[in-house]
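Example 201.
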Amino acid sequence: MKHLYMQGEDSSKPTLLLLHGTGGNEHDLVGLGKEIDSSANILSVRGNVLENGMPRFFKRLAEGVFDLEDLQARTEELKNFIDEAANNYKFDRDKVVVIGYSNGANIAGNLLFEYKDVFKGAILHHPMVPRHGVEVPTMPGTPVFIGAGKNDFMCPATESQELRDILQDSGANVELYWHEYGHQLTQDEVQTAKEWYKKNL
Ligand code: MLT
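Predicted structure in complex with D-malate:
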């Protein structure tokens, strides 16, 4: 997969896996990753699907309606890519912390739904429930931050709450942060995620 890798200054730190939103690319979230942890490794990936020229991590049938078959195939592809990247770049596979926004947060959520111990922690900005009614692996104590907007029409509040409940029921240690706005990532949300990361990872 198209990506960029930046070796961090501190080899004891996690590797931040950055997954952009629809229409983004591997450069978009590098500033965000550096803000969260300036000395961690960064692995930032571009989604392999194009929707009217806009990169995404999986196909959708309509806004907010996922192509579940493609989601499964792309989730597996991304999981394999992360494993291979850990091998190639010699970072600790057990210390990958994902930071995803919107479409990137949705595939990150599906990775958590599909694979046990896939991440050391997760920061999910404006995610939805990737799939409903499925069994999710246990993840005792895995720290997860969910950022949500009270007026996010793309991702209704009930979706954020349901995702929190599913992950919590699987044993994750979830913090759900709300802002008053829509689907956008705000400075306050980023700063809250940064403080949360310092405490939990
Ligand atoms: C998705 O398709 O993943 C969600 O609708 C969010 C987005 O617009 O990317």
